[in-house]
Amino acid sequence: MDTTIEALNDELSVFSNLSFEDDLEDIKEAVSERWNTAVLMAKTNLSSSDYETIQSFSSAEALIQDLQNRQVKMSKGQWLPNLNDVPPAIKVLHNSVGMFLVAIAPRSLEFAVMWGLIYLTTTLSLKSKTIWTDFVKRLERIRRNLNLLNWCAKSFSASFPDELSRAMVDVFTTLIKFWIQTVNLMRENATTHGLSSMTGKLETKFSSAMAEVEESIKYLTKLASVINPPLIAQFDRLEKERRARQDELASTVEIPDDYADYPVNFSPMTHLSTVFHGREVVMKEIDRGLEGQRDKLRSVLIHGLGGVGKTQTALNYAHINASKYDAIFWIRSETTLSINHSISNIARGLKLPGSMREGGNDEQNFLAFQSWLRTQGARKSGRKWLMIFDNVENIEDINPRYVPTTGGAVIITSRYPNTALPSSSEISLKPFSNEDSVNVLRDMMKFAAFQIRSQKDEDALKVLANKVDGLPLGLRIIAGLMNINTRKHKTVAKFLEMYNRHANKLMKDSGRIVEYEGDSTRRVGAEHVLNRIWYMSFTQLENEDEKKDEARVLLGILCLFCPDGIPQSLFGADITATICDSELHFICDEDGLGIDTAMATLSQMALADLDGQTITIHRLIQDAYIQYMLDEKGSTLENAFSSAITVLQHHFPRQINGRPMHGEWQKCRDLIEHTKWLAERYSQLRDNPTNLPVRPDLAELLKHCAWYLFEMADHRTALHMLEIAQDACAEKRSELYAHLLNTIGCCSFELNDLQRCRQTWDEALAIRQIWANKNSPGAEEELANQLNNFGNLESAEGMYESALGFFEQARKIRVKLGADAVVPLGVTYMTTGRAYFLKNMYSEAMDNYQKAEEVFMHIFGPKGHFMAHLNYAYGNLKRAQNMEDAKDFYQKACTILEDETPFHLLLAACFYKIACLHFTSGDRKAALEFLEKALTISELREAVGDTARALRKKADILSTGTEDEKQQASLLLSQVEYILAGQTSIVFSLEHESEDEWDNWVCPYWR
What we know:
mainly alpha, six-stranded parallel β-sheet, three-stranded antiparallel β-sheet, 43 helices
């Protein structure tokens, strides 16, 4: 089959190089021919059955309907992928196809191959959670690019259909080529293990395809700027306005005189090697890249293979040049969670306003830090700073949200060369030369004088350095092994003999579950350059003569946590008091000797490091030891999971019967990265043939983790964790499983995905009714929570009688429960009032709101968070009745929210409603000012629907103004279409929408 794929590449590349000469009689005919040839490629390179399948989908509508039908049928399965993730991309592609057909009219082309290929790749991706997740991510990138393609296409007048059709056919044929390759690769690797092994190859092909697509779009964008420069200029202006809103928001966080003692350095000293060689040229390159005007942002990207020393190089540069800067900021950038956690730690270290508050939120810390950069860090005589983003996976993870716009120095480290900023100088970091490798290894050896006695030892030292290809990580581990084996092996030559004896043991014919960084070309089952030294290190931990149980147990746990920032305090003696059958007693003893012994051993062997009270470990070592545990003893990995779960369960706060976790946010924040990393490891290993059992204890841990993430409005991460928790929960009719389903529904409700919300809450309600009938402790309270949630859903979808029935059932249970459910009872009164309000029964709504107020005022007082929600509800009720005091209630809600949660989406909703009132009363200026406030929060929280609603209202107001304002209103409508494209339940035509219908774009709570 490889030859078929290569043939496809060759043939399509011929078409990619076709040029449409000016003297061609009909460019449209050439475009049509190219499309038909791409379709023929599908027929030639797919199997007959696959080609027959793709021909059965004549339209995008047919494909979406099929996916919706399949989702319903899959709803009772053990693993529930969300097929609703696929239609957004299909809808945007459908728009692209429509514009393409207009451009080549009167010709007509068949697009069944496009919809059929999406169907095939969707179906094949369902075999594995990991493959599905990667598929959805790729589809989302395709959707974003198509969005950009579509609004570029809008800027073309009817006079330029040929240029548009040429660019669009480039994009379509590239996508077809990639999807054919995907189908064939998945067919070749039909087993779950086979699918996992081809992930790297598929990602390479996708990156190549996206490079071609983005090049075509880049060409269209440049052409659009020539054809319609005013439109492009206006879009640039909108982006500048958005950035200006964020700048203004940051400036509202007042930064008084600095409380920090400068210079400050937030870099992790645990990574700083006492030996640093051979990077003098690189240091000079970084210096040159960071030179320039101080009021400009200067940046450098350091990229290279895993273990080549990217982090070490950046850290040593910061150390060597520390005197140049007042502040050095280190931001761990593997995930959004790690970025936010790093920035919050920086804000606390700088003693910025609000950062020391218990449970202070990441948005506030982020804005305080941005304000510091724009004040203390941007003044002509202000602070000089260096910011290092370490281990960036995608440039979109940090830019534009986290990259400063003020003058300063930025270093990015990454495995990938495409993670540079537009202005970045790029440095490709290479392994050490042979000479430098030997020098580094010699200097890392504690007993070099004793171990290097002859020329034979000198030669052996060169051979060892060459064995790891000059990778700094490998050299460090070799030195660690020699340092602990001084007495036993004596000389370097004898150590080399031991090293070589492990060759036969290592050369086994098994695949790796984790691809080593930058190593995608290695044949499956082949030996990695560092495998041998890792094997020697790991076996040393289990050597019967010198058995190191403490280090072995600790290393197993560390490999399942986030590699950075692991608190040593997690391993206290209090854990073992609550468990019986566990290996944790090796490291969790009363006097702390076990953890100290374990860390001393791992540090000496260069397998982990300790900086103060924080442990770190390299990601490659994590992957290698997991593989070692799988290869040597399958039960060892299970034991490591048990211990890791026990540790986090002991420390992570618990969510009880649907009650808020607000008072525990800080503890949650400190542990959430490690919980997420553990869950990812479990998912990765469950998705491979490792026989890793289901872990209900992990599901229980993730139940609390996901609820915290929901409260923090990190819905994407919460849903991902919940998917893993569902897989870990063996009993699908348990109370635990019902809790997971309920949290999925809560996230979906706030994301305005009401279809998925209903699916999960239906199932959760059925389970909770069973347990309530059994009189299980706490089950009745959880049933009341579920009933109240269902009432909210029915209200959101206009089924008010049904909603009131659910609320009444919840009320009766909560009255019966008494003091334990008094706050939830207040919530039931408030949501019942909202249902009556939506039903236009204003008197009944007021009665229930007043009952809720009595509860909230008694428990929390007038400034409690629930009072903000109630005041918003009062405002909506008064506004519907055209009462003048509606604005007063919205303002009361604002006062509460601005003091405690200044970036809550409810505050954005209040600003929006106040803007509507001002516009109704004829005060356009005030209306626009409040809409800007609403937009600022919505954009900060990346709330697409809320942003679209505020922009749509702004367009409505501007359309009543001057000709210039009317043009701006038209542009805003286009922007609304752009940002809503690809969202579920989207309306593509906005011309006849009313304000009530705009509310459907946001979470029902904020309507």
